[in-house]
Structures are given as structure tokens and as C-alpha cells.
Amino acid sequence: MTVYREVSELPRCGSCGKLLTVGGIEQERLGHVIWFCSDQCIRVFDSYKVPKYGADAIWPESLKR
Questions:
Q1: For the segment 28-41, what is each residue's pLDDT rounded down to a tens digit?
Q2: Residue 55's domain spans which residues?
Q3: Which terminus has fewer CB within 10 Å in the chain: N or C?
Q4: Is residue 1 part of a domain?
Q5: Distance (Å, rounded) from C-alpha 62 to C-alpha 13?
Q6: pTM listed for this prediction
Q7: Contact 33, 63 (CB under 8 A)
């Protein structure tokens, strides 16, 4: 029997916010393990979001549970 997760339980990319239904890349940033959808989003997060927003760059929906 296949168990499906609710959409509200799925992680989102830590950079672009895309819903990650399958896969994803886990990376540790700012003391948290964050989900990303691609290497490009990791680069954007590191080069733009963190310098501009600091710790506020992390979305609760992108943290690994």
C-alpha cells in the first residue's frame, strides 16, 4: 500500500520556493539542513539571499524535518 504525503508536509526549495515532490538536494546552511531544487538555487541562496537577508533568508518550509 502506497502512503502519500499531504502537500502541506512536502518541503519547498530554500531559494525559489518550488514544491519538492521528489528528490531535492539537502545542504547545511546557517546551522540548518535546507532543501534545494537545484545547484543554481544553492548558488543564488549563497550569493544573494544570505548576504541580503541573513538568517531571515531561511523559510521554515525548506528546513529538513
A1: 999 999 999 999 99
A2: 7-62
A3: N
A4: no
A5: 6
A6: 0.84
A7: yes
